[in-house]
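Re: that chain you flagged

S.,

Sorry for the slow reply, it's been a week of failed gels. I finally had a moment to sit down with the sequence you sent. For the record, here it is as I used it:
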Amino acid sequence: MATLLSLEERLGEIRASAVNNVPKEAFFSGDELLVFIISLGGAVSGFLQYFVLVRRVALFGCSRLQRVTLVLAPAAGLLLTFVVLSSYAAQEVRDDRIYFLLFLLLGATWIFWTPSLFPILGLSLRVDALEGHNESAIVALTGAILGISITYAGGNIGEGATIWTTIFSSALATAGLFLLWLMLEMGSRVSLAITEERDRASGWRLAGYLVGIGLILGRAVAGDWTSTRQTIKDFAVAGWPAVVLTFVAIFVEGKWQPNLRQPVPPVYMRGIFPALVYLASVGVVLLFLGRWK
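Prediction finished late last night. Pasting the structure tokens below so you have them in one place:
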């Protein structure tokens, strides 16, 4: 009998050891597996539709420089996501390759598919940037893709109880960016200056604005998760400077868009310089907010 009990205890130890040594990837919950599958499909399909579009539009005479710019934008967004996941994501994500891959694939889906929503705000990757050879639209859309990438990356910073806390935070920041962009569009009709007037200065200002509010809103959702209510509260407290920047941008657009007196505003003084001022102001805001908690 003693031998039998010893054998059973030994088998129990072996089973326990086997369970402890099984890779954590094997314990994906149902919803995590669903998100993984959707992210994998979304990343692959998004990659193909985005780059096939950029490649095919070369037939319309789109210059190589224009295509390279729009290829580098999502590449930079994916690189940023990789760096954030490697250095600032939850410990579980950093230590577990399959969770790391899940959030990287989700980021790729985020980055490649959100441009399909840009036409709602008056800018189209295909029509304006590629087929229309509109340099102003290319600059603006590059800024938009980078801004979206930053909001997703910000939601991945800090510890969280489940994958849904990360998804909620990133979605909150991304929705905030689209809402503020809509406010700017309704208040200034900046898309018309870019698509119809082809004003390069307006494209640079919009790009700087979108990257700037992306940085603010991404920082606003960064940090350890405590609750949905607290996340929304922190988002409002840390994200309000993006609203201020939006009203400033509406004012600037009203003054510096093309008009009869100046149909072609100077690109550097009324485009690149204001964009840099936006970003410098955002840098001050980020220094004031400090490191996330």
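What I noticed first: Residues 14-26 have pLDDT under 50 and may be disordered.

Talk soon,
D.
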